[in-house]
Specification:
Largest sheet: 5 strands, antiparallel
CATH superfamily of the largest domain: Sulfite Reductase Hemoprotein, domain 1
Number of helices: 24
Strand order of the largest sheet: 1-2-5-4-13
Oligomer: single chain
Number of domains: 5
CATH class of the largest domain: Alpha Beta
Number of strands: 20
Radius of gyration: 26 Å
Strand content: 5-15%
């Protein structure tokens, strides 16, 4: 039997910082009060989220008829059954600032994964660690053990400043302007629990990148993205940051706006505080769908936002923490364990080692040292593997390990002469896959495995793509091998599909009486330049045909690529219309009798039936006019992309709006037999009969996509910027997806029309 919460508290004693002990005590008391029914669910939800404790999707493979087709593992010791606060065990997110980990922390994570979870730790796209199937009653003990190792879960979730991400090779990078690590660390603990960051309407994300050209920490998709910069002032070179604000992915992504080309290092913390105060005061609170900083900046405009932040900065009470950390920055450095020694040219090298060295080894700016990337399948590693990495980090370096935004781990400061031995040790632990940074190294969010928002199995698809691509690894030349694939289970972009060469997000289609898993295909996102460009969807393909889609697109790129042409340039050169032709062949869905595999998702044999619709004469399919009408709306949204590509900004915006308008009309016609032609009448009838009644509402985003439609109607006919036209196209695609979902939920029973 493992110790109880109180036993762990006594055992750990003073090893847990006093402030964290007090916080965890408070949380433990809140759990007790919630179990007594003295705290409401909505209040407790916010308090647990701020401590990283999430509810998760968990159906144990149970179909409606009671049969089980898959099994979710419980920890061997965990015999409590269903959680007393959630319907099932949840997920614990653990903050790892800028990805920095040491050996003791790796070992604690291993112990917790074994004792409280299913033996697996998951690295996220924000350098966090997640443990799944955690019982809420166990979280205080878990938090105390983490705190004793210097890790907190505070504000890992909720309406707070989330984990601060940073370039995983900061300090050893050959391209960096300077090492951003001490700045990322300083802002982490300055903003953690800061009073000015406790009343946000939504989350706030910060990243630090050491250079502009590479991906680093993807500064341009963050609320607060700082890129290292230097400037000569009065004849002296001074450190600072190029600051970007208001970025974000999600359903409708927005690239950050440039706040200032140079913020001096001593101003980076007070500016962050001033921005937090403006966001807390003026950001949306009631409608969570528009509560991110990007929406506030869009509403105010970047110039007005700058004025507000500067005014706020001027009235901030002085805080010594703004600059206290700077005195230690010049002396900040990581140190190696062993002397630098180059890898001997004549050293015995196997083919395995050579391939691994090519993809997974990065030569540091410090001669004779290398950084090794451990490519983790879908970000997962076992408790045994965590301990193996801890041992390796002590054996070859001074425990300098970091997680990455691509769901991997890196080992820094390895003497190059030790690389063969490191490879051998990693291989023994099952961690030497030579795939880092290649097309095989697919990133994915949890999707339907554990996320309540998941529509399609992103992990299932990502795993299938990894398997197929790894099998043909020898065939992957430099042209294809360097592409990035990222998969999300829904439109929220937790898998960062918008900034991939080939991105996919889960959707569904109602076909032949079944809900068929599909993925929208996005092309042309840019991982480099700190997420310099976002891709756009070109069409939905059944999940089971995505591997063929990938093969078709990559083969054409290999064959038709011009010398040194990037994938983004290739997509732009051939045009979206030609790109869409590549996937058209794969969009058809056969009947269930012809091929039942289409009606289940990767890794899950269950079929997602929406009930029997009935079969027409001659065993023909039942096809409603709305099916054709929504397909036409998708075509209109795609044609809007073509207009945007051709530089016809206003026309693109108008076509995106009309795609939404026609989707609303299709629903009115299907549900209420209403078919007005006047746009204002369509909008009003849709508002009364679908929005006010909440028939259109999704369980999670509620009426967001309908509100996007209403906003587009208000703007109709006005001049648009390129960025706004791009957003309207994204919103049109999501509105149409919502129309598909609404149609799937509705019965064929005629409904009463609301006057």
């Amino acid at each position: 039997m493992r110790p109880s919460n109180s036993q762990w508290k006594a055992q750990l004693g003073d090893s847990v910082p006093a402030n964290l002990t007090a916080e965890i005590d408070v949380f433990e008391n809140e759990i007790a009060l919630r179990m007594q029914g003295k705290i409401e669910d909505r209040v407790f939800a916010e308090t647990r989220l701020r401590r990283g404790a999430y509810g998760q999707r968990y159906d144990n493979g149970q179909r409606s008829d009671g049969t089980t087709t898959r099994t979710i593992k419980y920890p061997s010791e965990n015999t409590k059954g269903p959680n007393t606060l959630w319907d099932a065990p949840g997920m614990q997110r653990i903050k790892i600032p800028y990805g920095g980990l040491n050996a003791a922390q790796l070992e604690v994570l291993a112990d917790l994964a074994e004792e409280y979870s299913d033996g697996i730790a998951h690295i996220t796209t924000r350098q966090d660690v997640q443990l799944h199937f955690i019982h809420i009653e166990d979280t205080p003990a878990l938090m105390r053990r983490l705190a004793a190792a210097g890790i907190t879960t505070r504000e890992a979730c909720g309406n707070s400043v989330r984990n601060v991400t940073g370039c995983p090779i900061a300090g050893v990078c050959t391209d960096q302007t300077f090492d951003v690590t001490p700045y990322a660390k300083a802002i982490t603990y300055f903003m953690l629990g800061h009073p000015d960051a406790q009343t946000f309407g939504r989350k706030f994300k910060i990243s630090f990148s050491g250079c502009k050209e590479n991906a680093c920490a993807l500064a341009r998709l963050h609320d607060f993205g700082a890129i290292a910069a230097v400037k000569t002032i009065d004849g002296k070179q001074k450190r600072g940051f190029e600051l970007w604000v208001g970025g974000g992915l999600g359903p409708v992504p927005q690239q950050a706006r440039l706040y200032d080309e140079f913020v001096p290092e001593e101003e980076i913390l007070p500016i962050a505080q001033a921005i937090a105060r403006v966001f807390a005061r003026l950001g949306e609170k009631k409608n969570r769908n528009t509560a991110r900083l990007k929406f506030l900046i869009s509403k105010l405009g970047i110039e007005e936002f700058r004025k507000l932040v500067k005014a706020e900065r001027e009235i901030l009470p002085y805080d010594s923490r703004w600059t206290d950390f700077l005195k230690d920055v010049p002396n900040y450095k990581e140190e190696p364990l062993k002397p630098a020694q180059l890898l001997q040219i004549g050293a015995a090298r196997t083919d395995d080692f050579n391939q691994w060295h090519k993809n997974n080894v990065y030569r540091q700016r410090q001669e004779g040292y290398a950084t090794v990337t451990i490519a983790l399948p879908l970000g997962d590693l076992t408790a045994t593997q965590l301990r193996a990495i801890a041992d390796i980090s002590r054996k070859y370096m001074k425990e300098t390990v970091r997680s990455t935004v691509e769901q991997n781990l890196v080992l820094r400061w390895i003497s190059e002469a030790d690389l063969p031995a490191v490879h051998a040790d990693l291989k023994a632990a099952g961690l030497a896959a030579p795939l880092a940074g290649t097309i095989v190294d697919v990133s994915s969010c949890p999707g339907t495995d554990t996320c309540k928002l998941g529509i399609a199995s992103s992990r299932g698809l990502a795993g299938e793509l990894r398997t197929r691509l790894a099998a043909k690894n020898a065939e992957l030349d430099e042209t294809i091998g360097g592409l990035r694939i990222k998969v999300s289970g829904c439109f929220n972009s937790c898998g960062q599909h918008h900034v991939a060469d080939l991105g996919f997000y889960g959707v569904s289609r109602n076909k032949n009486g079944y809900t068929v898993p599909h993925f929208q295909v996005l092309l042309g996102g840019e991982w480099g330049n700190n997420a310099g460009t976002y891709g756009l969807a070109i069409g939905a393909v059944p999940s089971k045909r995505i591997p063929e889609t990938v093969d078709r697109i990559t083969t054409r790129f290999r064959v038709e690529r011009l010398t040194d042409e990037s994938f983004q340039a290739f997509v732009k050169r051939i045009g979206k219309a030609e790109c869409k032709k590549m996937i058209d062949e794969f969009t058809a869905v056969p009947t269930h009798d012809e091929d039942a595999s289409y009606y289940s998702d990767w890794g899950d044999p269950r079929e997602f039936s929406i009930g029997d619709i009935g079969v027409g004469e001659c065993a023909g399919e039942v096809v409603y006019p709305i099916d054709f009408e929504l397909v036409a709306c998708e075509r209109e949204a795609f044609e809007a992309q073509l207009q945007l590509e051709a530089g016809q900004i206003d026309k693109a915006a108008q076509m995106a709006y009309e795609a939404m308008l026609h989707g609303a009309k299709a629903l009115l016609k299907f549900r209420y037999q209403l078919a007005p032609d006047d746009p204002s009448r369509i909008v009003e009838d849709f508002r009364v009969n679908f929005f006010d009644t909440e028939i259109f509402f999704d369980p999670f985003v509620r009426g967001k996509f309908a509100q996007d439609f209403f906003n587009a109607h208000e703007e109709a006919g006005q001049p648009r910027t390129t960025e706004r036209a791009h957003q309207l196209i994204e919103q049109a695609q999501l509105f149409i997806e919502a129309c598909y979902s609404c149609h799937a939920r509705m019965t064929a029973t005629p409904a009463k029309v609301t006057a």
